[in-house]
Amino acid sequence: MSTSAFFIPSLNLMGAGCLRQAIDAMRGHGFRRALIVTDQGLVKAGLAGKVADMLAAADIEPTVFDGVHPNPSCANVNAGLALLKEKRCDVVVSLGGGSPHDCAKGIALVAVNGGRIQDYEGVDRSAKPQLPLVAINTTAGTASEMTRFCIITDESRRIKMAIVDKHTTPILSVNDPETMAGMPAALTAATG
pTM value? Predict the structure, then answer.
C-alpha cells in the first residue's frame, strides 16, 4: 500500500473580518517588510491599498507589486523577485485569485532557492522552503491559496509549467468574504 501526503497551510482563517486576524498573526511572526503580489485591478479597486494600510499599522512595511497578469509568466515572477530583493522583504503576501497566488509562490520559491523559476518545473524540485507566504484570497474559485501547485507560463517555450512542490504551500491562507465584496459580478459568478 502506498502512502499519500497532504500539504495545506498550517493556519487557514475563514470568516468575515478574519483579514484583521491574519495581520495580527503576521505581526506575531515578526515580519518587517512585506511584498504584496497582486494585479492592477485590485489596486484600482482599493483593496491592495487597504491591505498595505493594515500592514503599515502593524509596523510591517508594505511594498505593492501589481505586475501580475492572468496566467502569470516567468517575466512576472522575475519582476516581482527584483522588487522583493530591492526592498529586502522578509514575507510575501499574495492578494487575489489564482494568478497572484501562483506568481507569489514563484517569487517566494526562487527568493530562497535561487536560480530561475523554470528550474522548479515538475514535482518537489526545490531544496528549501520558500520565503514565508501569506495568501489572501479575493475569489472563490481556484483554491491556490491552500495548495502546493503553481502554474507559470514560460513565454520562451510557450507552455504553462506545472510546479508541484511541498515548499510552495503558504504558511497562512485567508478567506475573508469582506475581501470578495465589491469584486465584479462576472468574476464572482465565474469563480463561485
Answer: 0.92
